[in-house]
């Protein structure tokens, strides 16, 4: 079974045909969707069955159709050597200055928070399936995926953040923000607490604007790899609203963009020297049927991810900036977040 699964993925890759491999959080098995041709399927309203990937700027959403569906219970890592070496960690001083500029802007304007992203570049020589299987083994609690389309490229990630999921008309979304090393003890700082609460208040307001009835959990600390985050979960019934209504209301969340959303987006357009593309966008299976026969959709936020092209890996990392941010600590936070992906090659 495993050999057949791997063989078909390798054939799809060699033929330059679209495919996606993924596993939902805490899911032991792995699923793959194979598309039989190289069409670029746009699906702004999420009406097609398959696996979607949407840009951060919401300008495009694409679907890999599930012409063929493969599953495997256990996908073990290959013994093949995976080469990975970072050659461009990014400009530390430039990022520190960017953070300080954002802090200054927040202190004297209506902008409350903005998420600044950057990229790290590495040489990489590894098969996508080998990378994915190592990633899944390392982060079983994450939403892991490997997405390939010849007109989009190869994206691989292990996201700890849910944008929205729907099953039996019940929806879930989360407020996930604030970051620190898992090995550090002690209380959360005021900056991290307020950063997460900004996200919570934003989601609460957006759901109320849709006239949705929901419950919100208490704040808890959750672990994602070697990092800790603050999290709250929202659960409710969709009623007359649809999945696309939730996505339009929630994306991009303050966890990847900022607050107020329009001011944060304008700030990023003017000051962030980076084409995020699909980084901090969303991705996941839509209108699928699980083992119980229920129709479900699961869309994660595309963070802790990288794009691989011509044996160069672009690792995307970001951090939320508020009035209390320390520029040097914000740089260190992005370095820590990059280790989610880079550490699997050690």
Question: Characteristics of this structure?
Answer:
single chain; 346 residues; alpha+beta; Anthranilate synthase; eleven-stranded antiparallel beta sheet; 7 helices
Question: Would you give an account of this structure?
Answer:
The chain is built from 7 helices and 21 strands. It is of the alpha+beta class and 346 residues long. The strands form 2 sheets. Strands 3, 4, 5, 11, 12, 13, 14, 15, 17, 18 and 19 form an 11-stranded antiparallel beta sheet that branches. α2 crosses α7 (327-342). The two termini are 29 Å apart. 45% of the residues are buried. The model has no long low-confidence stretch (mean pLDDT 94).
SSE layout and pairings?
Elements: H1 2-14, E1 19-23, E2 30-34, E3 41-42, E4 50-54, E5 61-65, E6 68-72, E7 83-88, H2 92-108, E8 113-125, H3 128-138, E9 143-149, E10 153-159, E11 162-167, E12 170-181, H4 190-209, E13 214-216, E14 220-224, E15 227-237, H5 243-250, E16 258-259, H6 261-271, E17 282-286, E18 288-289, E19 295-301, E20 305-309, E21 312-321, H7 327-342
Antiparallel strand pairs: 1-2, 1-9, 2-6, 3-5, 4-5, 4-17, 7-8, 8-16, 8-21, 9-10, 10-20, 11-12, 11-19, 12-15, 13-15, 14-15, 17-19, 18-19, 20-21
Helix pairs in contact: 2-7
């Amino acid at each position: 079974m495993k050999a057949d699964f791997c063989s078909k993925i390798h054939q799809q890759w060699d033929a330059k045909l679209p495919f996606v491999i993924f596993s939902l959080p805490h899911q032991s098995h792995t699923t793959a969707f194979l598309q039989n041709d190289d069409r670029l399927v746009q699906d702004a309203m999420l009406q097609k069955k398959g696996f979607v990937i949407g840009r951060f700027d919401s300008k495009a959403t694409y679907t890999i159709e599930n012409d063929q569906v493969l599953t495997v219970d256990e996908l073990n890592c290959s013994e093949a050597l995976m080469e990975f070496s970072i050659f461009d960690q990014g400009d530390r001083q430039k990022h520190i200055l960017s953070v300080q500029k954002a802090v200054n802007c927040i202190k004297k304007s209506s902008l409350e928070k903005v998420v600044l992203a950057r990229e790290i570049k590495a040489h990489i020589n590894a098969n996508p399936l080998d990378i994915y299987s190592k990633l899944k083994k390392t982060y079983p609690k994450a939403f892991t995926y490997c997405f390939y389309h010849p007109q989009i490229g190869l994206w691989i990630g292990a996201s700890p953040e849910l944008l929205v999921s729907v099953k039996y008309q019940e929806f879930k979304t989360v407020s996930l923000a604030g970051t620190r090393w898992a090995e550090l003890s002690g209380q959360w700082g005021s900056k991290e607490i307020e950063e997460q609460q900004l996200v919570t208040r934003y989601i609460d307001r957006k759901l109320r604007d849709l006239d949705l009835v929901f419950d919100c959990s208490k704040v808890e600390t959750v672990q994602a790899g070697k990092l800790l985050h603050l999290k709250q979960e929202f659960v409710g019934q969709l009623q007359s609203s649809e999945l696309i209504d939730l996505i339009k209301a929630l994306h991009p969340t303050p966890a990847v963009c900022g607050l107020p959303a329009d001011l944060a987006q304008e700030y990023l357009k003017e000051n962030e020297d980076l084409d995020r593309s699909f980084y901090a966008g969303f991705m996941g299976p839509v209108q699928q049927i699980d083992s119980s026969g229920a129709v479900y959709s699961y869309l994660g936020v595309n963070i802790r991810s990288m794009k691989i092209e011509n044996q160069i890996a672009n690792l995307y990392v970001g951090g939320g900036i508020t009035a209390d941010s320390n520029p040097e600590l914000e740089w260190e936070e992005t370095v820590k977040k990059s280790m989610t992906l880079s550490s699997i090659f050690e």
